[in-house]
Amino acid sequence: MQAATGQKEYDFVIVGSGLGGLACAGILAKEGYSVVVLEKNHQIGGHLQVYSRGKSIFDTGVHYVGSLDPGENLYQFFKYLGILDKLKLKRMDEDKVDVIRFDDGSEYAYAQGFEHFEEQLISYFPEEKNAIETYCEKIRDICSKFPLYNLRVSDENHYQTDGSVTGLNAYDYIASLTENVRLRNVLAGANLLYAGVKEKTPFYVHALITKSYLSGAYKFIDGGSQIAIQLSRVIRQHGGQIFKHKKVVSANYHENGEVSEVVLENGETVRGRQFISNVHPSMTIDIFGSDRFLNVYKNRVHGLKNSISTFLVHITFLEKSFEYLNYNIYQHHIDNVWDGVEYDQETWPQTYFICTPYISKTGQYADSMSIMTYMNAQETEKWSGTFSTVAEPGKRDEEYLEFKKEKEKQVIRKLENVFPGISEKVKSVHSASPLTFRDYIGNRDGSLYGIEKDSGSAARTQINTKTRIPNLHLTGQNISLHGILGVTVSAFITCFSFIDKHILVDKVKNA
Predict the structure, then answer these.
(1) Where would I find the Amine oxidase domain in this sequence (predicted)?
(2) Span(s) in the chain for CATH 3.50.50.60
C-alpha cells in the first residue's frame, strides 16, 4: 500500500468500489487523470460481488441486465469504457424475459422489444388494447425526457424540475389507464426491481427500468462480477490504482475548506485534489465530518428513508435435476403486487423474484437458483451490533442461524407452489439477510436500492453530485437511479463536473 501513502497526490481519490466508483474511475482514468479507488472489503464491486459455496457461483445483486442491444444506451456506455466485448453474456428469451405469475397459476410474459412487448400484452388482454398502447406510449414519452438515457446532453435538468415527470405516481398512473385490476398488476408485476411503494414510487422510475429491460436483456454467464473485474482492468491499464481492505474513516482539510486527504482505519492517509464518494450520502457525511455540512442538508439526508432490504435464498441443485430457465419469474401470492413491501409475517414471502444463473459448465441444466424477497431490516435488528464480512470475519450467534434457516424453509415451502417437487432436487441452501447486505454494501440497513424516491416530494429525494465541500462529489445509486444502467448514468453525471459533457457524450455515442 506504500505507493498510496507516500506523498503522492492523486487527481481523484474515490471512496468505495461499487459500480459508481469503478465507472467514475474508469472514465477519469481514460481521460488522463491519476485515480485511486479505496475499498473496505475483500472484494470490489458492491452489488456486483459474487461468492461461491461448494463449487456454485452466486450473484448478490445483479441477476440480469437490460439496454445491451447494439446502439442502446448501456451498450454504448460499456463500449466507451472498453468493457463491452469482454463481457460473457447470454441473451434472454425473446418471448419472455420476465414472467409475472399469480397465486392462481396464471402467467403473463414480458417479451423483448417494445412492439413485441405491446403485442404480447394485447394478446392477453385484447379488450384493453387502448390502455396498453397508451401505457407504452407514456413510457416512451417519459424516457425521452431524460437526456443521458438517450445519449443526449441538455444544459438544463428540465426533467428534475418538471412536476409532470417527477411528480407522477406509478401506481396512480397505471390505475388511471384501466379498470382491469389484473392488467394493472401485470403492468406493475416486476416492481421488485425498484421496491415499488404504492404511495411513493414515481412513474419515471418504473418507466426507465421497464424500458431498459425491454431493449436487450441478458444474463451474465458465470456471474455479474465480470463488470467489476473488467472495469478494474481498464482502470489499471490507464494508470489507476485500486486498493482493497482500505476503510476510509475520516478526512483532513486545507485551510480553504477543501479536503486534503482521507484517513484510513489503519492510520494511513491518501492525498488527493478531488474526492468522490460512492458511499451512501448519509455515511459520507459521517466520514467527511458532520460539522462540514449545513444542518438543513444533514437533516434532510439523514431523514431520507431507504428502500426496503431483502432476504436472498440461494439453492444449489443436485446434478442435472432442474432445467435452466432463460427468463425470470416474479411470483405474487397476493392479488395486489404493491402490497408485498408491507408484508404480513404469517404469509411471508408474499412476492418474490426467481432466477437461475447461466453457468457455462452445466448448460441446459441449472446449477442453482436465486430467490429474492423483501425483508425489513427490523427483523434482524437484534443482531445489528454484530458485523461479519470476509475482510472482517465476525460470528453471529446460533439464534441468528436458526432465524435464517426458518426463513429459508418458508421460502422453499412457497416455492413448491411454483415448482412442485423442487425440494427433492435441492442439494444445499444458504441465504443472505439485511445484515449481510449492510455489511458488504456499507449502508445502514441493508437497503437494496438506496434512497426511496417519492413522487409526493420529488425534490427532497434528489441528491446533487456536488456537496458544500468544494472538492467532494457524490456518485452511486442515490444520485440518478439504481441498477446497472442507473448507476452508470450517475457516474457520467458526476464526471461532468470535471470533463466537458458535450465532448464526453460524443465519445460515448461514437465509441
Answers:
(1) 19-420
(2) 2-88+222-304+455-509
The pLDDT value recorded for residue 6 is: 53
Please measure the distance between the N-terminal and C-terminal CA atoms of the chain and give it in whole angstroms. Answer: 34
User: Considering only CA atoms, which of 64, 117, 114, 126 is closest in space to residue 95?
Assistant: 117
Task: Output the CA torsion sign for 485, 86, 57, 401.
Answer: negative
CA distances 343 to 138, 247, 293, 417, Å, are 30, 35, 37, 19
Q: Which residues pair with 218 in a beta bridge?
A: 65, 91
Query: Could you say which architecture CATH assigns to the domain 2-88+222-304+455-509?
Result: 3-Layer(bba) Sandwich (3.50)
pTM attached to this predicted model = 0.94
With 80 as the cut, is the pLDDT of residue 159 above it?
no
- Angstrom distance (rounded) from CA 10 to CA 8: 6
pLDDT tens column, 44-81: 888 877 777 777 777 777 889 999 999 999 999 999 99
Sign of CA dihedral 500, 477, 509, 145: negative
CA atoms within 13 A on the CB side of 416: 9
Give the amino acid at 287: I
Helices (H) and strands (E) in the chain, counts: 17, 18
- Find out whether 147 and 157 touch, Cβ atoms under 8 Å: no
Buried b (16+ CB within 10 A) or exposed e, 287-326: bbeeebbeeeebeebeebebbbbbbbbbbbbeeeebebbb
- Tens digit of pLDDT for each residue in 89-121? 999 999 999 999 999 999 999 999 999 999 999
- Residue 327 is placed in which grid cell? 427468463
Residue type, 113: G
